[in-house]
User: What shape does this take?
Amino acid sequence: PTVSGAYEVDLIFSNGGSISEEAKISVTFSVEASALDARGAVVSGDGVNRGRVFRPQTFSILMHDAYGNPVAAERPGVAITAVFTSAADPAAFFTAAVAWNTKLGRYNAEYSAENPGLYYANLTLDAGDGRGPNALALPSSYAGTVIEAESVETQKCEVSGAGVGSDPIGAGTPAVFTVRARDKYGSRIARGGAAFHALARGRNGTSTEGTTVRLDSLADEGDGTYTATYTPTKAGDYQLSVRRAGEELTIAGSPFNVTVVPGATSAARSKAYGDGLCAARAGRLATFRVQAYDAFGNKKTDSHDEFRFSVRGVDHPTPMTAVGGGAYEGSYVVDRSGPLVVAVTYRGETVGLADEVGPLEGCAVLSGPPVSFEVRGPGTADGDVVRAGETLAVTANAYDESGDFATFAADDAFNLTVFVDGVRESSRAFERSSGSRMRATWKPLFNATSNASIHLALTPANDSTRLLFKTPGSGLKVSPGAANTAATWTPFLDALEARTDFIAGQTSWFTVTVKDAPGNVRFVESDLAGGVGTWGSLVVTQVDGADPRGPGAIIFRGVDAVMDNVTGAHNVSFTPTVAGVIRVSVRVESDGSFLYADAPVRSNAVSASASEVFGVGVDAGAAAGKTTHFYVQLRDALRNPASLEAGVTLAVTFAALGGSDGSVSLGSGGPTEVAGRPGRWKIPYVAARSSAGDYRASVSVTLSGGGGGGGGGG
Assistant: This one.
């Protein structure tokens, strides 16, 4: 038999006689499929053609024998293997587990692939007959097994390429990066259809803040990769955000820090600037600069470009010099004056001008730098005499080598320098007043009596040893300047207020030295007499201490002051007669102001003959047994109230003159000085009597210890 299945055989026996008789025997049996034939395998099910990573996939294998009969029962010793090999990497494979399914009467294969891609299945049969494994036939439509990844997982996707790299991107250069889609297992997705978005924004706090750059294109390559292109034009720092469905590709590194640098240098956008483009001086170095920019207006920072220039149509032999920050400097020297044309190029194209330069019109080479000077003013001629403290003006005209008025360069600077005995004393800057003319002021602050050698000099501001002009001969002289109140009055006031030795009746003196602002003594005889050219008029007045508001008496006038010809000090001599103060007043001639200072005048020694004893106690007497008093007023010889000198006291004695018997004695406390009344003493006493009649006595006041006479009686 060649067909498997159930069979029935009928055996019919006949006797062959005339009377037909038959006997029938029925026999049933089954025919099974013969040995398994690899060529008769039928492989079916989606799992053999496609699958997804990490998902169980199945397919079935229906076996037949060589006659095409299906094998419906498991045969012992039979083994079927299924191996799937990667089309991209022959070393990569996975296997399927093959087992007999009794219920279905066939073999079932099951696998779970981990990596997506195209695989080729290799199914083999070992029938257990010793002939070894044979390959099973696959469907004629089989082209491979495609293992698909899961759906796109945003945080598993990858981003790479120059557009997100650490290397700077040139402005105007398309930047490209690639997004590679992966599923949640990190498996590469080999199909397209995902949507990604990207946007670059200028970083906060930088020059690009507020700038955005959108993608030029985002191409879906259909194999799970997406190619993005963007073109930034403004140099600076950016953050490039790559997203899918609004979710940032954080794990991939988004947002990416991207640095954009200036692009290729553009002659049209680069800017030339500087005085040397339109102005120069014959024989003097002239300079100008170029700032390189790219086509988008970004300032270049490198120094790799080559800018060239020409002057009056003649190319300069060397390129401009890089000075850093994308700037280049050109310098040249023109030996003659006249029109000036400077042209700057980059790779044969004309370089533009900076906005502040404006049109180059009327450009010219001016006269040469100053080499000589004509200096005029006080102190510039031999023997000039200047007054100390006065502000003096000096002018200087500058000339070039040809004797024409010179042209100053922007950095030309000169000083008017004062030398004393060959040593620099001070410097003042010359200011340009017009054209080649300069002006400076100076103030001599020297000792007018000094024999020092003083010269004025014109020097460069950066080199005081280089003398471009010097006062000829022996130089200049300094005379005292105008009287200065501060320099004169302040030291005099301090000295006068410290005086305590003025005494009524004794000849006194003080000195006044009139000085100018630098402190030079003026040596002017009439300086205290008042009038034009003097310091002012001085008056000394005495003020009575007992009547400070009363009229003061003039005891000296400045016209009588005598000047010491050696020191220049004015001597003021006077004799005060009133104890109180002397007031020295000056009416300053220069501004009409009024100055004054006071100094105390003490009374002279006590004079007994000029002193007085008075009061009820000596004029009218006293009632017996009661304390009464009288006063003593001490005075000097000029009748100024006077105080007792140290060691001198008042001695009071009483003597009887007749009448009833009695006695007189000092009261408690004895003589006391009256507060606020210099030289006035209050003397208490008590009188007694022994009879009804009056008791008469005399009182005598003497200066004890001072050798003076009686102070009076009564």
